TrEMBL record:
Residue stretches making up the U-box domain: 1004-1078
Gene Ontology CC entries for this record: cytoplasm; nucleus; ubiquitin ligase complex
Biased segments, Basic and acidic residues type: 117-136
Name of this protein: U-box domain-containing protein
Organism from which the protein derives: Oleoguttula mirabilis
Location, primary (coarse class): cytoplasm
Amino acid sequence: MADSTMSDADKVREATPAPDAHLADISKIRAKRLAKLGGAQSNGSSSASLAPNGTATQSSAATPQSTATSPPPQQSTKAPTEPKPSQFSQLGMKQEQEKKAATPIKVRPRPASPAKRNSDGAERPRSQREPENLETWQDRNLRSIFRVTLRPEEVKDAHGHPLLFLGSTRQDLNDENAPFLLNNTVLEGAITEAASQAPGGKPFEYLLACFKRISRGIRGTKYSGADDPKRDILKETRRLCMSYCVFAVTMPEMFGENVPSTNPLVDHLLSDPECDSGICTDFLDEASTRMDEDESISTALVGAAEDLSRRLATVDMNGDYQSYVRGLMNLIRYPKIVEAITHSSMWAPADVEPQDIETKTLLGPFFRLSPMQLEVAQSYFSAPRTRDRNFITSAQNAVRLTLRNHQLLLFQIARSIAGSNAQCKEAMLDWFALCVNKNHKKRAMRVDYKTVSGDGFMVNVTVVLDQLCEPFMDASFSKIDKIDVDYLRRKPRVDISDETKINADQKAADEFYARPAEGTSGFTSEIFFLTVAAHHYGTEAAQTRMATMKKSVKRYEQDLETFEADRHKYLNDPRYLARFEEHVSKIKQQVDDMHSTIHATNGVLLDDLNQARSMQFMRLVIVWLLRLASRQNLPKSGELHLPLPADQPDVFRCLPEYFLEDIVENFKFITRNIPHIMTPQQCDEIIQICVAFLRNTEYVKNPGVKSGLVTILFFGVQPMHNSKTGMLGDLLIGSPFAHKHLLHALMRFYIEAESTGTHTQFYDKFNIRFEIFQVIKCIWANTMYRENLAREAAINTDFFVQFVNMIVNDVTFVLDESLSSFTKIHELTKELASAAFSALSEDERKEKTELLEDQKGKAKSYMGLTRESMETLILFTETLPEAFTMPEIVQRLADMLDYNLDIMVGDKRTNLRVDNADEYKFNPRALLTDIVKVFINLSGRARFVQAIAKDGRSYKPDNFTKAADLMRNKVYMSPLEIQTWTQLGDRVALVKAEEEEEEADLGEPPEEFMDPLMADLMTDPVILPISRQVVDRSTIRSHLLSDPNDPFNRTPLKIADVLPDDELRGRIQAWRAERLAVKRAEKEGGGGGGGGVAAVGGGGGGEAMDTSQG
């Protein structure tokens, strides 16, 4: 028979099933569907199947094809069986069957292949395949899996794959007189020999492909039962193959001299797991299962992860970084592999430098990837100075989308590692702690960015930590109790030893933390404190650097303009011109690089999703801090009660300052740039913390943090979109909490801002007060605030007088500076236009020009403050005129108003004329109107009228007349206001005449009755306790409002410490009464009766003169 002449190898090959065995099942399904449509097939026909190449073949029951010399096959003479009627014909209704017979659908099956015949025409009997024994099956499968052969003449298998000839294995079998069949006894030697001949000298690649074929074979083989030896043979084969895969990684020299320089696993981890060269799930499953029994597997996988990380350290987002991330994610799906990786020496080395964390730790290169890297920023924002806003916005959107997807993968990596087991969770926390603890210098005054981690790296760390906090950031903060207040006293991962504390010096903080707390801290506390620190060194540091870069780029652009202006100096000398061009080109590149980095950083930081998550975390920090400071069970206890306790909790005082600083910086950035993402609940809580710590400023040591709270409110009330009062304005106007505490909090910090303790405190106070003015203007629409202000003035008089004094001081200063600047601008402009200016030397002309520019800058700055200061003064004098006419305030206020009125309407008003007044936002008419309104608001107060009359330097009756003319002809004030103004001028003139008469009557007072500071006659003398000097009470009260020291010896002094000098006051009163009585008698005796001055209150439109002390 034909099969008796076949070799064993031929039999095995013939018995080898097609690789796509499942196609036979498809054929069966197809046949069943045909049967349903057209009836059962003929018993004599065979069902069709698909060959491996996809062509239709006959079933195994068909006779094999004849050789080439056989005649062509003949059609079978047996008629096919008539198909049965289609079953669908039985689904119709009976009435329709009566009308028309149903026509069955006839589907004729393909006729069976004709039987093969001999040369004489006789039908050749069908061959019957002999059953395959286990040894033959094992040999066939092993040769197919490893694509090897023991016959030198075989070079390819049935599918055309090259075969590796195992000469040594054949010789071993021959020496043992064993059949040339592969089995598990000789398999190890066969694997070694085959891998040594691996194509391209890549034994691991060859063995990985073999492993995949084994895995497919295990799944695809049909077993006779649970004890089928075939399963054990294949599993043992896979075990050996895995072992040799590991050898190819850890001991590649055993397969030849061509030893790879890198871990060969890495190249395959970078490939798609579903492709032939990728590391599949089966491989990692097997590796993970055997890690406990074979340490070399752990070594191989950890080495691959390390090499993967090292390679990624040289790649940025312009390259194929996704394959590295995918490779790591494939590894960390297995807890045992994760545990092995966290034991790597690259995981979190204690001696790593801050700048090397992102390249020399295992996770560093993955977190390093960011568009904020210079090369990537240059790619997204090429030629940034030539791009329009639309291009920049589009590129920033692309940056955000790309980074957001990557950050999601980073979060999945961190979560997978932390979720593997307790040990891995600790290792993940250790790595995060390394990132924040090593980067304290990122918040130094002057940062050397070569010695710290990159901003992109730290921002990614922060974003991932924010996401890890989401499980305990629910809207009601139901898990806030899990954040342990004693965490920092239990050997915390977060190093705060060199951090400035909220309100404690280093000694007090060290003593507090020297008392350790008992117990252990949970994961919630660990991740909470790490995230707060990460915000400080991550996103907040990036915001700070971006602001610094914006200043730097302006300076570089100014330098570039200066250099370009000097180009003509080098045109005649090619050598110097080349150097000049090189230097200019270098500056241009630096400017472009900074612009690109700024655009990229802005794009990253303005991510709505990340910032919304960040705000939710900061909301949690706010509530947690208020719980500590207030000792209230917030948010369960309801509304926060103020003021805060006088005794500050140590646990709050000794917290790192960045707990508050992070909140301030985060919300300043949000309210300034993307306020629309804030929710009403977040707005409520930000108002609470701003008001709480401005109301109790003693709780916070750093004035910069406190001023930041004001800045948040300031940006929160700026108009946006359809809201004139911004995100916070409506809440501030309508919030009962704000009604109770906001105004007092703003006034308190307004006073405190006078001395911030910084070298820029003089300018800082004006910026702070400008922002406070804007908030007050926003809330002034609610009359409740005005009522509260009146109540504050009545109850807390000293505090309110101090506040009013600061307002008067500021208005006085900014008015003087702005109007003086305009006078100097007028003079310098006139001088530069004169012929004398041309006669000056170049240096003198340059000096004059620079002085003019300096004055213009000052005028712009101070004019803005002047408008806001005057508007605030108008608001307060209208609401509480009595507060501004207190003895210690009223004279300085009147002097200031008189002085500026004289400048505006007097003989020197022409000096205020400047070109391009709009450039400085200087409107003389508007400023005069503001000054007049303050006069009118206080016109009903007798003490104010007396103070104007008493001003011997600037008060001029003609100024009131000139101002009235301007009000009628140019300023266009209302008739009622003009009438009130005229009446005020008349009343002041009467009082002035009376005071001059009285002064003449009194003559020269004794020296001991005169105030040593003001040179006026004292009315209420007091003795200063230490210097023992005698001054008038109003004088020392006015002095102490601005300076808390004795003016004579600079010792600390409070108004409550002064001693009334009743004896001296009595003598002064007696002397005064005596002198006036004498003069009155002289006038009456001389017939001068009736010549006295008319009543002060007469002739005016206001109330009668108020001589009381109120």
